[in-house]
Amino acid sequence: MTHTIEELLTLAPVIPVLVIDNLDDAVPLAAALVAGGLPVLEITLRTSVALAAIEAIAASVPEAMVGVGTVTSTVEMEQSINAGATFAVSPGCTSELATKAAGFELPYLPGVANPSDVMRALEHDLSVLKLFPAEAAGGTAMLKALSGPFPQVRFCPTGGIGPDNMLDYLRLDNVMTIGGSWVAPKQDIAAKNWQNITSLAAAAVRKAASAND
C-alpha cells in the first residue's frame, strides 16, 4: 500500500532518524522502535550499509514504514527505491530531486531552512516539508513566522530536538510530527540494548500525547 507523505507523518509523533553502522543491528533496531510505537523510520545514507539496512528492514519488519534520509542526488533516490524505501527525506530541496520524486510517485519530504526554500518547494507542489536544521534555523520562532505567509505548509522539524523541547514543536499548528535521534542512542545500538530503545520510543509517544493538554 502506497502512502502519501501526509499520511506517513500522521502515523507517529516522532520519526526516528537512524544512523546504522552494523547491518546486523538494522532489523532488531527497527523492531524495537516499532514495538515502542514509532513505525515510521528514516535510515540516513551516512554509512556504507544504509541501503542494505533499508532492504533488510523492508523485508523483515513489515510493520515498519522504512524511508531513506540524507538523499542528496537522484542516483541515491533510485537506489533507495530499489532497496525498498517507502519515502525519501532530503536535507535541502532541489528542483531535480523534486522532479525525480514526482516521477517515481515517491512520498518526498524535502528540507527547508528559510522562506525562499519554502517557495521553491511550493513551486513543485510540495507543501509538507522538513525544517532542517530546526534549532539552528530558528526553531519554534521560525515555524511561527513561516505560518503567516505559508498557512498551507506543514512541517516535520528535525535537528536539535529532544525530550526537553519536543512539546514546544508538537504544540504548533503547522507541525505534523518531529524527527529525532534521541530515541535510538548510539550507545544503546552498540550494546544491542533493544529494550531500552523500545522504552525510549514508548516514552516519546506518551509525552507527545500530552501536547494537546
Structure description:
With 213 residues, the chain is of the alpha/beta class. It has one domain (5-212): Alpha-Beta Barrel (TIM Barrel), CATH 3.20.20.70. 42% of the residues lie in helices and 14% in strands. It is built from 10 helices and 9 strands. The chain has helices spanning 5-9, 26-35, 50-60, 74-83, 95-104, 115-122, 139-147, 166-170, 186-190, 194-209, and strands spanning 14-18, 40-44, 65-69, 88-89, 108-109, 111-112, 128-131, 154-155, 178-180. A 4-stranded parallel beta sheet has the order 3-2-1-9. α7 links the parallel β7 and β8. α2 (26-35) packs parallel to α10.
Write a brief caption for the model.
The chain has one domain: TIM Barrel (Alpha-Beta Barrel).
- Main β-sheet, in a few words? 4 strands, parallel
How would you state the average pLDDT, rounded?
96
Structural class: alpha/beta
- How many strands in all? 9
Q: Determine the CATH topology.
A: TIM Barrel
Major sheet: arrangement of strands? 3-2-1-9
Q: How large, in whole angstroms, is the Cα Rg? A: 16 Å
The number of domains: 1
CATH class: Alpha Beta
Q: How much helix, percentage-wise, in residues?
A: 40-55%
The helix tally amounts to 10
Shape: globular
Q: CATH homologous superfamily?
A: Aldolase class I
User: What is the chain-wise order of helices and strands?
Assistant: HEHEHEHEHEEHEHEHEHH
**What proportion strand?**
5-15%
* Straight-line N-to-C gap: 33 Å
Give me the CATH architecture, please: Alpha-Beta Barrel
Low-confidence stretches: none
